[in-house]
Molybdopterin molybdenumtransferase (Reticulibacter mediterranei), 816 residues
Amino acid sequence: MISVEEALARILAEIHPLNITHVPLADALGLILAEDVIAEEDIPPFDNSAMDGFALLSKDSRPRNGNPPRLRVTGGIAAGYIANHAVEEGSAMRIMTGAPVPPGADTVIQVELTRSDGPESEWVEILQEVAPGNNIRPAGEDMRTGQTALQRGTEIGPWEIGILATLGRANVPVIQRPRVAILSTGDEIVDVGEQLQPGKIRNSNGYLLEAAVRRAGAEAHRLGVARDSVESLREKLTEAISYDLIVTSGGVSVGDFDYVKDVMQEQGQMNFWRINMRPGKPVAFGRIGDVPLLGLPGNPVSSAVTFELFGLPLIRKLLGHSRLVKPQIDVIVEDDIHERAMRRHYVRANVEWRDGRFVARTTGNQGSHIMTSLLNANALLIVPEGGITFNAGDTAKAMMLNWPEVEI
Amino acid sequence: MISVEEALARILAEIHPLNITHVPLADALGLILAEDVIAEEDIPPFDNSAMDGFALLSKDSRPRNGNPPRLRVTGGIAAGYIANHAVEEGSAMRIMTGAPVPPGADTVIQVELTRSDGPESEWVEILQEVAPGNNIRPAGEDMRTGQTALQRGTEIGPWEIGILATLGRANVPVIQRPRVAILSTGDEIVDVGEQLQPGKIRNSNGYLLEAAVRRAGAEAHRLGVARDSVESLREKLTEAISYDLIVTSGGVSVGDFDYVKDVMQEQGQMNFWRINMRPGKPVAFGRIGDVPLLGLPGNPVSSAVTFELFGLPLIRKLLGHSRLVKPQIDVIVEDDIHERAMRRHYVRANVEWRDGRFVARTTGNQGSHIMTSLLNANALLIVPEGGITFNAGDTAKAMMLNWPEVEI
């Protein structure tokens, strides 16, 4: 049996980001940028007005004999259009927010600081003196031609999408989204829609893992259930090796019908198959052919928890993320926890920010078959190997499952 | 102008969760459960073994004259099958993890605490006395028939999907996913793939908002760009009223070409159109016909920030969530911030957990056209109305944009 840390290190040592591909901008959400993005234009592309108002020469805004100067209005510029003449001394042009500043003008005064005869007025009075550059957004103030606007390795969120759109990137170089095959194993497993016969249970892991894989940012494909025979497993795994990753549940323990390890040894390579933790000691990792296989336990809680600890970082590394794991923080436990197990225990808990500190409450019966212990759990309390006693008020480490990932 | 809080309250007062629909289990991820889910069976459905081992009568495990008792092995039960005979005194059956406990047996001993003649052995020696119920997971220990397994209003994550699968729910009653129309406005806007002509900029808001709407859990549909005319806007909005929500950007300021407000007043009802904040004063809310319309500003940063403050809670309420807004926490600011604006200012910042506290650093030029100020921003520092000076080391409120939402 190896430690959780060693297991994760061994997995990540074998996993590398997938290849680069180009996707339409709208499909890049959540993926990792595979190349630096260099601005090929200044952004904004031209000096433009930050306000609705008038473009003029700043020196024309100076009061004359204590009176507001009155300027001729020679036209208007709406956003999207350019002036067909320059602003000359003694004149001004109406200008809308975002419109290019016309040649000649060196400043813009907002409409609220002027007086005129309505929208068609042929004159405008300037009620306040304004400095050069007032309300003008210079070309290149946001990004300059040649500047690295987004760095390779950046996760593409809505705001990065906005920047890519501004720069005219209709197609984006990204790390491919992993395609993950999900395979449940066991003669006891029937599909969700089926009537339960005696001795049977439903395929909860397949659906749970499909959702978890999707939430991790990968494409999930349920391949159904392999029966408890080497033949059935070989057949399903033959189908699975066209994917980037295979995630199985069940079949990796010491029982007579635990064939996943056997087939891995036969058709690929097994790296490890037991981790010193609970829930979920029997976690296996290796390859079928060249495709990495993560074998999770059959108990639903074990499967759910070990996916968070190993499956999520694995998929994030395939996706090209540098932040792979959920953060750990100190929390105050609100109920007593007595543990004397030799294995490290990840206890499902709900953590809340209350009165300036994080407090944790465990979610009931922690048996690995008690799925209701997953409800309301947003964290895993970490009980170290060898056991420990936490009394209410003690500090413990918690892994925050709904916080953003951090670097290891 | 109304306050941010009043604007949000007015929006939410007009918005109600969408109707109930039924979706296949795998499609329920991220949606809100619309009805309580009652267990119609015990889970687990039958007493089953937690270990690979032997099922026996506990009294048969008592040492005889100091020696391990030797029992006849009358067969085996794999997971998924049921015993065809009972365990009688003096006998045992091999049993696999998850297999139903055979009639007659009241306990299970793990294989490691036995000795036998291999997998086909006709006898087994019991090396440790075991109590009744050992390694048996009783039927109904996780969920009992009639119990409310999941409550209406629960967000369906991977773990809830696992529970629904276990309970055989191939179809799930959920609140419909909102279909959101996204409309950019302005004669200056061209699509991402187009060459920039003088005076034009690209449609960054359409793509940014599409991604943000999707990340909020709704379906996003970009309807393109309405020109700066009442006719063009009417035409686009006629298309948009088949959606559950319309989000526009641009066209809601005081300029000559700001038609969104006008068309809203003509074809529906306008609730408000200015908020005492920046970036993003010109935010409008109302209806076109019966469809709510959220009008965001045209500046990309204003559009991005006001979506987080108003669009996200609005969409989450349509989805049926009870936790609508991003949480606010106290952070230590690491750079000086001097503000004397009358409007509340949401300053883009990066917040990190360092040495037991949250520290915030602003992300540079905070102009509403500076999209690069969005990069690395995971929080909005809140500078109250009227302005304030924060010196490095002072405490400020920050809204955490990548934390899970909380109740208002």
About this structure: Chain A has six helices and 28 strands. Residues 300-319 of chain A form the longest helix (20 residues). The mean pLDDT of chain A is 94. The helical segments of chain A are 4-14, 158-166, 204-215, 230-240, 260-267, 300-319.
